[in-house]
Structures are given as C-alpha cells and as structure tokens.
Write a structure and sequence with these properties.
By secondary structure, the chain is of the alpha+beta class. The chain has 5 domains: 100 residues, Alpha-Beta Complex (DNA Primase, Chain A), CATH 3.90.580.10; 125 residues, DNA primase DNAg catalytic core, N-terminal domain (Alpha-Beta Complex), CATH 3.90.980.10; 106 residues, Dna Topoisomerase Vi A Subunit, Chain: A, domain 2 (3-Layer(aba) Sandwich), CATH 3.40.1360.10; 63 residues; 125 residues, Orthogonal Bundle (DNAb Helicase, Chain A). The protein has 28 helices and 16 strands. Bound molecules: zinc ion (ZN).
Length: 579
C-alpha cells in the first residue's frame, strides 16, 4: 500500500461513497432492476455493456471485461493514480480526508526542484513583459491581437537579452546541474547562460497545469528559428501532454465535445473568440497516449489540424491509427492552407464559428480526400475508389447513415446502389470478436482453478486449506490471485471481496479476474462438493505436466546415464501418484 491515505480510511471512503452516483458524473446510467447500465467508456461501445451493481459496489463491462470498484473507475477514466482517484471520490462524496490535502501531496514529488525552477522562470518572464524593456514585445503582441486578458490567461512573458534568469536561480540555491537538467540554461566554457534570449515566452503545461517547458518566439527580427521549444526533460515529455488540457478538461466534458488543433497559438486564438474546449497536440504526429487522453475528454471529437497538406496527412493518420469509433469524430478542414490562428486573423471569427458548427463526418472526409486522385472517366479508377470506400461503409453501424453514405457513393460514381450494396459484408459485430477472444475454451483444469478460487473468496477456511494442501494453480494469473488472497488473509485475519479489491489498488488484471470469478454461478449442490476433488484435478495437471516434461527430455537425451536418471524420475513420480 502507498502510505498517502491509510488503508482503513480508504475502506471507509468506499463504504460512504455510492458507486452509482460517482459513475453517473462521467457516464449516463439507466436503472434496470437492481443494477444500472451505461455505455462502457473503456472500449468502443455502442450498446450499454457496462453494469454497475449497488449491492456489490462494483462496475463490470460484459464485453471488454473491464471491472473494479469506484476508485478503479475514476482512476481509469481520468487517467490518474489510485490515490488521486481516492481523493476525488472522497471530495465528490463530501468527505474531508483528514490528511495532507494540499495538492502537492498528490503530484509526483520526485522532480519538485525542476517544477520549482519553472515556477520561478515563468513568473520572471511574465514580469519582464511589463517593464520598459518589454514595450516592443508588448506592441508586437497587441498588433497580433493578443491583449492583456490573453497574456494573463496563458501566462505569456518575455525573456531578457542577458542571463538574468540564471543569476536568480543561482541566488535561490539551485545548483548548476539542476539548472542544466531543467533545460532552461546551458553551460559553455565553464559559464552558465540562459537559453532563451529576447523571445516572447509561451509556457507549456503538464496535465495538472504546472509549467514544465516553454516555446519562445522571436518578435523583433527575422530568424530561422521562429520558435524554440524546451527540449525533453524528466518532466517535459512532448508525447505525454496536450496543451491546455488542464483548462479544457471540465468544459469539454460539460459540452461533450473537444476540438483538437496542432499548435498552442491555435488554442490561444480560439480562446480569444470564446472557444475554450480545445487542446493542441503540439505537432502532427499524435501519440497513442495523447489519443487515449482525447478519447476520455469528451464523447465527440473535432479534428481541426492545419489547412495545409501536412495537416491533411495528420488528419488521415489520426483516423487510421485512432479512428475506430468513427461516429464520434468529425473533421474541419480550413481553406487556403491556413492554420486556425491565421484563419481567425484573416477571415474572422464568424467564418471560424461556421466551420466549427458544420464539421464533416469521417466518411465524407474520406470520400473527398480519396476522390482527388481518381479519374472518373476510367472504369478501373472508379472500381478502385469504390473498393477503398467499402471498408469505411462497413464500419458504420447505423443502418440509415449507412444507406445515406451508399447513396452518396452511388451518385458520385454513377454506379448502381445495389451493386455497391452487394459488395458490403454484413457488419461483423465487433463485440462478438471481443467475446470470442475472452471465451477461450476452458479445460477442466481451468474450471477447477476457478472453482477453488470461488470457494476461497466465499469461505475463509478454504484459504488456509488451499495454502496447506495445494498452494498451486496451473494458470499464472490464477496462482497470483490465490497467493494474494492467502497473503491478505494472513495479514488481516479476515477476508471480504470489497476490501480486498481496494487492497489490490491498481492491479487491474487481478481485479478483473476476481470480479469475474465472483460472478460465476454455481448451484447449491456444486458448492457442497468436496474441495479435495478439485485439488486432485489440479494435482493431476501438475503430475501430467511433470511426466510430459520428463518424457520429452527422455526422447531427446542421447547420453545413456542421463536417460536412466530421467527414467528413474518418471518411475518415482508414477509410484508416488499411485500410492
Ligand atoms: Zn467495455
């Protein structure tokens, strides 16, 4: 256990919280009988597959198998640590946790010196902008329609032309190594220098809203490097952040929509015209980490990358890599190769608002972007084009939408609708694939394992009985779970599944397993079976494994003496077994 919040306190938070109330904050739930159902946020779900049980205080998805208690849900949904999730649940339940509740406790403290450096730096830069020295920079910003409210909101600043920041950090007791590690200064022939000289400084933030880097822009001269970005440090990893995430998160959830742009200037400009549910990927190659974050921010995503060819490629690549759930992604393509910042400056706020209220769907986007290389007088070209679009149509679940898309394709190509339809495979349900994957035929050994675990969960006598008489299960995860149950029981001298799942914290494979086992339906008669019968099945598997292994060894062994040894071992195991 982490020592942030004591285990018994977490248990009491869970007892006071109602999982249905908490999950409802994230996902709409509908009551059916004793349980509640909602769309699972952890897989590409179209029908409510996630059930939430008030009795058991757990959630479980019948399709992807994700399950756990209220903390696991919040943790996975918000992509935060277990302890952060405990804190959120406590707050939502109105519990004052009687421990250090200042934010710092919950933020990774390992690199606090680096965070401190950035905290000092951005305040210093910001202050600079308001001095006489900052007048030219301020004018530049005003000319670009960046007013004081924007400067304040995004903490924009100015770096001086000397190494004053280094001197300040030095005086505050930071070592040269720490300062170099922060990537804010560098060392050359034994002297330390500021990296950013006379640039307008845009702070970059981590997901919690702490400053962890900068983008410095030239403003008073032409320069090859219009922007200098902080290089990656221990706290600044470009692929793991989204610019403006901390500000946009709550709003995106409320508005059920998040806009994705490439650059931080796009975010700032959109903010200035009142569009605030927006984040920037800080480049064209979106990482899996970023895509996961985006998916969890809001159910609807609008991709508005730059209007140039690179932005088009970025859109295509996003759809290819992360666009499985087509229904929820819409696209805005801006004319004249402009990025959103330039677009607003050149074409005005209203045109941008029009675009944002008329985004196109993925199908239409592909219909348009693939069409460009097609010669519509060439039959082969048309056939290729239709074949490229068929898989896109197959992804559409809604029959009506599907029919509309087929009509569009038919009109565009002058190919009969029925011919196009005949090429479309009936939608193989994605959910069936999941189920097949999970329901690998279970053999008698697996069945026996699950039964033994079930009995251990429901009868503490079985825990020690297992420990004394078997202490082995063939499947590694089953075995791990059994071990954890034994350890837990020995430590606390009691066992109940709710408290145990809390104890497992973030060990999701074990949590999913135990919740599944707990849901197995055994008849009363089955539960009266002697556990020894099941132990014997497992012992048989152990026995078979050993014999198989030795028989194989025997087959491959050429040394006569070693062959005899192996044969002897086989005889001994068989003797022991027949006793
Ligand atoms: Zn699911």
């Amino acid at each position: 256990m982490t020592n942030n919040i004591p285990y018994d306190e977490i248990i009491s938070i869970q007892r006071k919280a109602n999982i249905v109330d908490i999950i409802r904050d994230y996902v709409p739930l509908v009551q059916k009988g004793k349980n509640y159902f909602g769309i699972c946020p952890f897989h590409d779900d179209h029908n409510p597959s996630m059930s939430v049980s008030t009795d058991k205080q757990i959630y479980k998805c019948f399709v992807c198998g994700n399950s756990g208690n209220v903390f696991n849900f919040v943790m996975e949904y918000e992509k935060i640590s277990f302890m952060q999730a405990v804190k959120i649940v406590a707050e939502k339940t109105g519990i004052d946790i009687d421990i250090k509740t200042d934010n710092k406790t919950y933020i990774d403290n390992t690199y606090h010196r680096l965070y401190d450096i950035y905290d000092i730096a951005y305040k210093f830069y910001q202050n600079n902008l308001n001095t006489t020295y900052g007048k030219a920079a301020k004018k530049y910003l005003t000319d670009r329609q960046i007013d004081d409210s924007i400067i304040k909101e995004f903490n924009i600043g100015l770096s001086p032309n000397d190494s004053e920041l280094y001197n300040i950090l030095n005086k505050k007791g930071f070592t040269d190594n720490e300062i170099i590690e922060s990537a804010i200064c560098y060392k050359s022939s034994n002297n330390m220098y500021d990296i950013y000289k006379n640039r307008i400084m845009f702070p970059l933030y981590n997901l919690q809203g702490q400053v962890i880097g900068f983008s410095g822009r030239v403003y008073d001269k032409a320069s090859e490097n219009k922007y200098i970005n902080t290089k990656e440090t221990k706290i600044f990893k470009k692929g793991e952040l989204l610019y403006n995430y901390h500000n946009a998160k709550a709003l995106a959830r409320k508005e059920k929509s998040i806009i994705i742009v490439e650059g931080f200037m796009d975010v700032i400009r959109l903010w200035s015209i009142g569009i605030k549910n927006v984040v920037a990927t800080m480049g064209t190659a979106v990482t899996k980490f970023q895509a996961n974050l985006i998916n969890k921010m809001a159910p609807n995503i609008i991709l508005m990358f730059d209007g140039d060819e690179a932005g088009n490629k970025a859109t295509q690549s996003y759809l290819e890599n992360f666009g499985n759930n087509m229904d929820n992604i819409k696209i805005v393509r801006l004319e004249d190769n402009l990025d959103p910042d330039e677009y607003i400056l050149q074409k005005g706020k209203d045109k941008m608002l029009y675009h944002l209220s008329h985004p196109i769907n993925v199908y239409d986007y592909k219909l348009n972007s693939l069409k460009e290389n097609i010669d519509f007088s060439n039959g082969k070209d048309i056939s290729n084009y239709i074949n490229l679009m068929i898989p896109e149509i197959e992804k559409v679940d809604d029959d009506i939408v599907r029919d509309i898309e087929i009509t569009k394709l038919s009109n565009l190509t002058n190919v009969d609708k029925e011919i196009i339809k005949s090429k479309i495979k009936t939608n193989t349900n994605k959910e069936i694939k999941y189920k097949e994957k999970r329901n690998v035929k279970s053999n008698k050994y697996e069945k026996a394992s699950k039964y033994i675990l079930y009995r251990m969960i429901h009868d503490t006598n079985m825990i020690l009985y297992y420990f004394d008489n078997l202490s082995y299960l063939p499947d590694e995860l089953d075995r791990k779970l059994a071990n954890e149950i034994v350890l837990y029981y020995k430590k606390f001298n009691s066992f109940n599944i709710n408290d145990f799942v809390i104890y497992l914290e973030a060990k999701k494979d074990l949590i999913n397993l135990i919740i599944n086992i707990d849901d197995l339906n055994y008849t009363k008669e089955e539960l009266e079976d002697s556990i020894d019968n099941y132990f014997n099945v497992i012992k048989e598997s152990l026995y078979n494994n050993q014999i198989n292994k030795l028989t194989n060894q025997l087959k491959n062994e050429t040394n006569e003496i070693k062959r005899k040894e192996i044969a002897q071992q086989i005889v001994e195991i068989k003797m022991k077994e027949s006793k």
